[in-house]
Amino acid sequence: xxxxxxxxxxxxxxxxxxxxxxAHYQTLSNGDIADADTIDMILEGAADFCENILxxxxxxxxxxxxxxxxxxxxxPKGFKEAYDQFVQGGWQGLSFPExxxxxxxxxxxxxxxxxxxxxxxxxxxxxxxxxxxxxxxxLQYGTAEQKNTYLPKLVEGTWSxxxxxxxxxxxxxxxxxxxxxxxxxxxxxxISGTKIFISAGEHDLTENIVHIVLARLPDAPAGTKGIxxxxxxxxxxxxxxxxGERNPVTCGSIEHKMGIRASATAVLNFDNAVGxxxxxxxxxxQAMFTFMNTARIGTAIQGIAHAELAFQGSLPYxxxxxxxxxxxxxxxxxxxxxxxxxxxxxRRMLLTQKAIAEGGRSMIYYAAQLADKMSDAxxxxxxxxxxxxxxxxGFYTPILKGFLxxxxxEAANHGMQVYGGHGYIKEWGMxxxxxxxxxxxxxxxxxxxxxxxxxxxxxxxxxxxxxxxDYTAEILKFCGQQARNKYMRRFAWDLxxxxxxxxxxxxxxxxxxRKDRNIVSSASTDFLMFSGYVMMxxxxxxxxxxxxxKLASGEGQETPEFYKAKIKVADFYFERMLPRTQGHAESMxxxxxxxxxxxxxxxxxxx
Amino acid sequence: xxxxxxxxxxxxxxxxxxxxxxAHYQTLSNGDIADADTIDMILEGAADFCENILxxxxxxxxxxxxxxxxxxxxxPKGFKEAYDQFVQGGWQGLSFPExxxxxxxxxxxxxxxxxxxxxxxxxxxxxxxxxxxxxxxxLQYGTAEQKNTYLPKLVEGTWSxxxxxxxxxxxxxxxxxxxxxxxxxxxxxxISGTKIFISAGEHDLTENIVHIVLARLPDAPAGTKGIxxxxxxxxxxxxxxxxGERNPVTCGSIEHKMGIRASATAVLNFDNAVGxxxxxxxxxxQAMFTFMNTARIGTAIQGIAHAELAFQGSLPYxxxxxxxxxxxxxxxxxxxxxxxxxxxxxRRMLLTQKAIAEGGRSMIYYAAQLADKMSDAxxxxxxxxxxxxxxxxGFYTPILKGFLxxxxxEAANHGMQVYGGHGYIKEWGMxxxxxxxxxxxxxxxxxxxxxxxxxxxxxxxxxxxxxxxDYTAEILKFCGQQARNKYMRRFAWDLxxxxxxxxxxxxxxxxxxRKDRNIVSSASTDFLMFSGYVMMxxxxxxxxxxxxxKLASGEGQETPEFYKAKIKVADFYFERMLPRTQGHAESMxxxxxxxxxxxxxxxxxxx
Lengths: 607, 607
Description:
- Two copies of one chain form a homodimer.
- By secondary structure, chain A is of the alpha+beta class.
- The first copy, chain A, has three domains: 8-288, Butyryl-CoA Dehydrogenase, subunit A, domain 2 (Beta Barrel), CATH 2.40.110; 291-445, Up-down Bundle (Butyryl-CoA Dehydrogenase, subunit A, domain 3); 465-596.
- The first copy, chain A, has helices at 8-18, 21-26, 36-54, 56-64, 79-88, 107-120, 122-141, 144-156, 284-290, 292-320, 344-380, 383-418, 430-438, 447-461, 466-482, 489-515, 519-522, 524-553, 560-577, 580-588, 593-596, and strands at residues 67-69, 72-74, 159-164, 180-183, 189-199, 208-215, 228-233, 235-237, 243-246, 249-254, 265-278.
- In chain A, strand 1 and strand 2 (72-74) form a beta hairpin.
- The mean pLDDT of chain A is 97.
- Chains A and B meet through helix 1, helix 10, helix 11, helix 12 and helix 13 of A and helix 1, helix 10, helix 11, helix 12 and helix 13 of B.
- Chains A, B: Belongs to the acyl-CoA dehydrogenase family.
């Protein structure tokens, strides 16, 4: 397993030179505390914790997995000690309010910290990661009493949280939720039902676990309009804040999974567990949607995390492993063969990983600024601004979640492929990256769900294509600004053509959908992937623009070689990956009937 | 884990209606014994064995894995009993000469049997599968004594065989092989060295294991021209054919792998083990090449095997699982939601799997006919015919091995994706298919190695593009024949354009390679995938042509619905998968410098 090294050069390049985080932070009400020294301290502290504490537990955690016995879950060796260090370092509270013990730093710093933690050890990162949704829900919808009861411990990290949505019969289609909440005399509720796939649903890292549970009140309307939210703590909390009686929410089993084996995925049985209504009755699903965008960005990070780790694993191997001679002549003449990094096809796999990791990182870091703005608006009580930023982020979310996790999985597979047969052997750790990354296109809304959200809700329903027109206008403006830079001309030209094509495809599907409703679904994944490739191209062009400007001016924090490498990877992306758009474009415009007209019973004549 | 059901409708459609196996068999010297009744008996017997004996052991074998203790390997529960049944059924000898106990049936029937066995349980199929290479080597290069000593037991299946090529420092680049062979006084050799990744290298299924080992004689030339082949049995064989002393070839460990966990992958230590030279000294590698094409077709089968099994697993789930409503209106109005098979994007994943499984199967079954012809030429002692057919098959081999295993892995991932989060849970068995299939792009030559073999050796070096000109001429002839069939027009037109493009791309790369040697490598994988998609399109068009002719005539062994479904899947392939060619076409023609010019030390500035 590759030992994780935080890519601080790239992180700082993106934060300081491409996305101007310092100026961005100045616009936030809590931005003044995110000064250069604080940011450095956080980046280096997180890097140290991830490289030295979390990374060494990644492969051992996978090999050992979680243990389930008598309703209790034991995490792998070393996880509890690492989690204690995480708590002691104050890492959970980084971006939560000081009022509840947090450090009130911008959300983006928390996302960047999560990226490092998740790259070093995704399974570990799941435990504190799930708490975030729980904390945000209580912060936004909880009563003062609920906040005071739960938030200090959750923000400290000595308690953790979960989101209990999925049931055996439904995941995406939450209107089918059956769990029940019966009112009790004291104003609380008796919650009953079975929840599955609950990440961090049971474990030994914290003193208490606070579950946010979707359930139905008696006589609630059917479907999505009859779902309410409840806080159900594993241990009831006494009036003085101390841990009270065990609540009858028990772990029935944990799942045996392909990957992220050190992350406990629990089946939770609620058997008249005491719960507390949070937010308005029957409006639980809307409340969930408030943080869906940020939650999905959190999952999109998994794409770049695994691309980065796969690259870190395959690069040294490609430099060391000797096999055959390069086609253009011996590169290591004194050796028995050339290192495989000298074969162009191996470089293709390395550069694809690098392009995904660094291109994806810039997309995430941009979205993180929108998350900052949302959070800032919330703090200021500016609902209109919150919603505007949420809408803006809502366009990026399905693309980042859907596209980056698909590409992250591709990158993980390239990393393994560079190793040849050795990649298939557990010892090297490369196959674990593939297994761990495979979940990312499934949970928090599958790729298909993201694709339908993008084209159905965000592009067609909400905006009749305006969101694409606006976004391509932004790209074209950038292209205009770059027209005189000789390094940038080919990028600007390719982007200009693709913007026209993106709009044309949108209009074509919009018109076709009037008569062919299913085309929205049949075109969706192609449209998502097309959109993702163009968006990533724009972000690579931005990186190349900064790099070429720094090379021209001789300024910048990095060496000229760093900037030259950025331009070369951008070139690679435009020449070797961006052409994939054309297959998606050609496929998506076909009518849906080729997909929909085959009768269900004719998919097979043998079974 | 889906219970395997042999897709006999599709198998018979391809054999009888598309590829006219009956007529093909008439051209073979051993074709008369492959009459309709015999074929039926074999297909049904194999289906029965695979469905009832092998399939139930697939998931349990993965969960249990192989056990290694004190140099011995125990296969998972049930494997030994199943293997005994395999031997009793005479399945190993299906296509080997009667002289050594075989049934002398055409090779193609053995490949079809292997497909069924591999789909039901790929790990199991590895054990008898590896024997085939060993048997072929002894058949072709062994002395009469060697044949009589080893073949009867190997053909019976009571002994098994391996191919020992890979060493820790080399896999693809066999010129680096270090294992040594010292001549002994009695004419045998003392073999020493370490071989890794030896499939079926040690196990408890057979009485003896016959290793074919690559090693160097003293003073052998360096590199690939100094490698000889040796037979090294696990147990020496006494003059009367009985098992003798244990030979010092010992299993040091078995690998812990991502998948095919019930297949033992051994590290073998040869410590002055007694070996017998087979074939000419220093010509071992050429001898290996004799059967490389058939061995690679055997691995290409893995692509369709996993595509088939993933489809068999995801189809019933897509019919059962209820989630959301179809965009074009309720399909299951009485249910809480529609079955997910009614969502176009889910159908995209199902149809992609089906297109890969059935399109790939037709490609394999065609190649199997070439294997028959090779084998027939060998029997007749017609070396020229053998080489002509081997050359012909040599064009298909890298495409089938490289392209079909990549698409098989894609299909396995779609199968898992249809299950949503449940796909990630071991219980369902879908993630095992992904893990098992992942090896197929790595062993028997990675995809990159296949790609270089195709464009470098087969297209440019051996034929200066003629092989593409000839193949596209064949496709264009077919298109001409179909021009008047209204069902076929769009297929013929698309194929015609792609044939022109395929030739143009070949010429363009050939010309570019004069100045830019590395383009052969930088273009290789794109060229392989482009070639694969066009070839699969031709095979889908052939299936559609037969189906439309049968619909028109009202004849044929299948129902009209079967033929209509074939045309719909062909439509799907042309509209939704074939457009991917355009991304590959655009990417491959770019000069190699974008890939090759980044200095090795600038791939990262952090590690």
